[in-house]
């Protein structure tokens, strides 16, 4: 859980910086920021799903 929080915090800050840099001095480009953060959340969800599916395959079906 700690790894997930650190990873999402890092990507949130990165998305905010990229959104600010792309928008210029006028205002934050929230669509870019939100889109980048959504990609990061989807990637972390996929990584979690992949690790759980691999763990299920390793479980023994016998006694």
From TrEMBL:
TM region positions: 33-50
Keywords in alphabetical order: Membrane, Transmembrane, Transmembrane helix
Name of this protein: Uncharacterized protein
Organism in which the protein naturally occurs: Kribbella soli
Taxonomic path: Bacteria, Bacillati, Actinomycetota, Actinomycetes, Propionibacteriales
């Amino acid at each position: 859980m700690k790894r997930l929080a650190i990873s999402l915090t890092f990507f949130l800050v990165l998305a905010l910086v990229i959104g600010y840099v792309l928008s210029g001095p006028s205002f934050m480009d929230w669509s870019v920021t939100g889109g980048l953060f959504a990609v990061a959340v989807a990637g972390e969800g996929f990584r979690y799903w992949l690790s759980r599916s691999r763990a299920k395959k390793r479980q023994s079906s016998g006694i």
